[in-house]
Every structure is written in structure tokens, then in C-alpha cells.
Amino acid sequence: MALLQISEPGQSPQPHQRKKSVGIDLGTTNSLVATVRSGIEAILPDEQGRDLLPSVVHYIPEGVSCVGYEAAEHNSTDPLNTLSSIKRLLGRGVDDIKTLGDTLPYEFTSDEGGMPRINTAYGVVSPIQVSAEILRKLAGRAELALGGMLDGAVITVPAYFDDAQRQATKDAATLAGIKVLRLLNEPTAAAIAYGLDTEVAEDESQQRLIAVYDLGGGTFDISILRLSKGVFEVLATGGDSALGGDDFDHAIANWLRIELAMGETLDVVEQRILLEAAKSAKQELSQKEQVEIEVLETALVLTREKMHELIDDLIEKTLKACKRSMRDAKIDVNSIDEVVLVGGSTRMPSVSEKVTELFGLKPKCSIDPDLVVAMGAAKQADVLVGNNTDGDMLLLDVIPLSLGIETMGGLTEKIIHRNTTIPVAKAQEFTTFKDGQTAMSIHVVQGDRELVSDCRSLARFELQGIPPMVAGGAKIQVSYQVDADGLLNVSARELSSGVESRIEVKPSYGLSDNEITQMLQDSFSHARDDMRLRGLREQQVEADRMLEDLRAAIEKDGQSLLDDSELQCLHLALDELQQLRENSEDHRQLAAQIETVGKTSEEFAARRMDASIKQALAGLSLDDALK
Asked: In this structure, which CATH number among 3.10.20.90, 3.30.365.10, 3.40.50.2000, 1.20.1270.10 belongs to the domain 526-616?
């Protein structure tokens, strides 16, 4: 007999109270999503049981054709419409792309704001839109696994992502319909996944210094964390948001180009072929001493030793960043208690060897480096959404680059210095430089150079209504406030009059609120059109299949099984279907003609089946046929 469990209002069993939260690792090469089930972090796989989702989106004239593994299959055959490594473009301007060289061989354009956009068969798309497609796919996977809409997600970002890159990530999530609980630095997420906070919590007097070395497909981070009594305090962070496994692939691909004597200039198809071969060889050499590469009808042998020679300079850049971060944290290498490896590129033997040599410690890598970040993010999401009320973990991240203001002479006055713990708010007073000045232009910049021209411009706004005074008489307080996601708000206030102006910094390399709102509205207002186009596309595919199959059948058996009038009737039906396939915009009209052709060809199909059976039974006795 089944038992019915009854609970008082507000006291329903715990499983029914759990909110659906996930951690998302939006990666350059691969992305994935994780959740917490029964107190244990778990990766949510796709229907084929695959944990990873390649961060690849393929476009056709009608829109997005596929995301992930299916999209990656178009890498070599349709490179201009198959967008990968798009994370490297988030929050970047047109000038930034020039520094990437031919790493991303797409056809770029730009709007007035300076955000690069990519020309595809569908039209012009932004990096934020492409990233939103990847996030939407992951959210769909999670909702299917958890049985409902998500209540929130923690999305990880490289620790070295600046304000523009963080805002672009958040915009992509908004566009994908995901409620962002927090943007979490990837190294911090890895430390959470390893439970390093609980290890320290067992001895409240203990403090540990952790170095998290995160080398992914497109970015590198090094973070120095101090763990004490369940508090994660990031002492320093560094790295390069344009250095990762992709660059290793390009170094190997360049070697292939030279060995094959292909010349300096390659078309996009040749570039993709070499890159795919290089990536495959790099992965195999993590397990083998040498590998044979077959590319463009030529076989070449690449040894692990030769690959190390090709990429050693890139690995050395990461080690220099580690040393800088330790100097910023005011510690030496002997103070580090633990080293954690994160990111798929750390599987390379040369990487782990050099990290071990630098720190003099064997790194932690017991959790799959591809999965560890998403698992840590899921654990943090579980706390933030309210499921884990016992979670007393405190995360104290830092800003990676200083935030300042332009002063006379094009100089940068730093208001919040890099590696300052966030959230944080700081203010500084400025004054006018002309008699009777009634307005002041505020130029917000990010960077650690002295000249504004060497820093990144984040925003400009004006404080108007300043009472006219002699130069230096007015007192203007400029306040900077950075939230837990590393996003910035700036305000300026004249103290004697109280006039104030403020701005939420939306870097020019992100989408404006209006653009995001418009895109979301478009997704609703064009829903009916989108369904119609989908229906048309499906019927066009069915028409193509029918045309190809029937024409092949007629060519083979038409003359022997049909008389002239029947053959002519079938040809007329096929010609009309072909014409509708090419010209009709009405999927119902096309479906009706497909049905007509099906009925017209029924007798032909029956005769072919009869003929096939007769041929199979020819020469057999009744007893043989019945066996």
C-alpha cells in the first residue's frame, strides 16, 4: 500500500523546496554546466552522455543551424560561418582584434561603438550573440535534466577579465534568458571545487596560500588565494586574456605550414585544416612521445620534444605572470602551500613539469581540469540560490586592473588600484581648472599605465550645474563602486551645491540595454515568423529527399514499370514540387505538394516492390520460399 506524505504549510519536505541552480563554465574551446545533487556537484551531460559542449556555433542563411559537436563538424568545410573561440572577442574593440593576428580568421565589421561584429551567411552577429547561443544550449541541457526553469546560475570568467569583458559575459547571459547570481573568477571556482576551504576550516588557526594556475583554450590566469576560516581571499591575480591552447595550436600549425612549404598566405579553409590537424596532434602528444600527422595528402612526424620547442616561449609567458602575481601578493615561492591546475591545456606534460619546477610542489589535478571550474561554480550557485543554508563560505575576489579617471594632460589618476578586494567603494575629490567653470567631463578608464591613451576607455559623462567659482574653488567628489561581479558604477557630486551625475559603466564593446531589450523583444515578436521559417525549412528538406529518391527510381525502373502517360504525370508532379521548393514561402503549400507527389507515386512504388519480390523469388520452389 502506497503512503501519502502530508506536510503542514511551509514545512514541505526538503527535496520539494530546492531551487534549480547551476554553475556554467563558458570556455573558449569547450563549455559545460554543473549542479549540486544531494550535496554533491555533478556535471550535466547531453543526451549522448557527453559532458563537454564545444564552444562552436554554425550559421546558415536562416540563422543558427547547430551548436556544439554538430557545429564543430563544419569547421573545415564552412569556416567563415562556423564561429569558435569567440570568448576571445568578448568585451574587445576593433583595435584589440588586430593583436590577435590571424587567430580568428573571420570577416569582421564594426559599429560606431567599436564592438567587432562578424559577417555570416545569416548576417552580422556580435560575440555577445554567439556566446548567448552557447549559454542557451547549456541552459536547455540543465532545464531538461533538472525538470524545469532555472532559478539562477553562477557563470565563471577568467580572473584577468576586465570590466568590459565581464559586462559582455553578463549581457550574453541576459540575452540567453539566464538569471546571473554572480560572475565568479575561474581560479576561485576551482579552489571551491577542491574543497580547500573545508580543509582549512578544520583548523581555525590555520591559513594556507594557494596558487591556482588556469590555462584554458584562450585565456591564462594565475591567482594567489589565502584561505582562512572558510574565507577565500584573493591576494593577487594576473595572466593574459589572449593566451591559451589556441595559441599552441597556431604555433604547431605554423610549423606544419613551413614543413609543407605552403607559403605565407593561406585561405581560411587551409588555415582550419592545419589548425584541426595541429589540435589533434597536440592532444595525442599528451599521451605519446611522437605522432604522425596526415594533412593535405602528406604525412609528417611531430615529436613531443619538437612540440615543446615550439610552445616553450608561450609557457614561459605564463610563468613570468606567476612570478609577477607573487610579487603583487608580497610573498615568495616558498610561501605557497598548494598549487592547483585548471584548464584542458594543463594536461600537456611540459606545462605541469614547468609549473612543478617553478613552485617546487606537485600540483593538485585529481579533478578533471576541464570539469573543475563548473563544479566549483555549481557549489557556489547552490549557496547563493538559498539551497545550502549551512554554507558560510566568503569569497573575496579582487579587480584585475586599476580603475581611474583622466586628469589634465591626458594622465590617469587611479582611484581603485588593481588587486583591491571587491566589492569596494572609493571616492576622491577633484576641482575645476578654469574661472567660472560650470561643467566637468568625467572620463572613466581602466588600466595601470600612466597615460590615458595606454589604458582602456570605459565611459564618459558630464557633471553639469557646477556653481561658477574661481579656478580650484569647486569641490567635486568622484565615487567609484565595484560590485561582487567586478562591474562598476561611477558618480560625481559637487559638494557645495549637491548637483550630481552618475553612470553605470557599460563599455562600448558590449551591447547597450536597449539592444539587449530589443533582441529579447524580437525573440518574442518574431516567434511566429521563426516557427513559419522552421516549418518551411523542414518541408524543403523533405522535398529534397523526395525529389532525389523518386528521380533515381524513375531513372532505374521508370521505363519498364510505367507507361508514357503515367511517366509524364509523375514528371509533372515532380517539376511542380521542384518549382515550389525553389520559390514558395508557404510551408503548407509545399507540404500539400509533397503529399500529392506521394500519392501520385504510390502505384509506381507498389510495382517496384512487386518486381523486387518476384526477382528475389525467381527460381525458388514454394517450399524453398516458405523456409
From this structure: 1.20.1270.10
